[in-house]
Amino acid sequence: MARKPFIAGNWKMNMTAESGKELIAQLKPLVKEAKCNVALCVPAILIPAMVKAAKGSKIKIGAQNVHFAKSGAYTGEISADMLKEYGVKYVIIGHSERRQYFGETDETVNKRTLFALENELTPIVCVGETLSERENGETEKVLLKQLTVGLNGVTDVTKLVIAYEPVWAIGTGKTATDEQAQETIKYIRNTLGKIFGVKNANRVIIQYGGSMNAQNCKGLMAQPDIDGGLIGGASLKPDFATIVNFDK
Asked: What amino acid positions are annotated as catalytic residues?
């Protein structure tokens, strides 16, 4: 089965309702012929307005996190029911910034992932190593733990997306070479094959998430195991459409 490419933007803590609506209005005609799936994962407070702005277009609206409880005393969190009420399909889980600044662990990534799947949301599960881990030759060790613990208990891995985001390449302007990205994502797919079976692993969408932009997207997307991108800064401007239309 051919894997359909998936380009997702991560707005992080950027944009307002007005600037977001303006950007989506600019993007809609630019991505209407896209051959890939397209999403923008926006701050929770912007979801209702962005869903309305993107209506009738190729663009789906996603969230940047989801809690692992249905409801309760979890100040500042957002539930699956809240997201589903607005038609949210995708949710980023375990982004390196959540791990670095907000105490996210492989164990909490696992709990959020399982709950998202139970609620028919598509998790975009982020994995990746720091610069020191790469320089110390620990990339595969780190990824193995993140995948083994983070996906523990998942019964159908084809219902989620993996985003490989080398932490050293996020927001730094540094990007893994096409070959580095392919080599590491191939390792991720092989690891999924050992856990879930090769047939299932070959159906999983794996994105590259380390400073993919309009200039380097074609080379990265030409790699056999790279199925898309999780795009940060480049998703905040109309150039995002160039990445979505990488095949043109």
From this structure: 95, 165
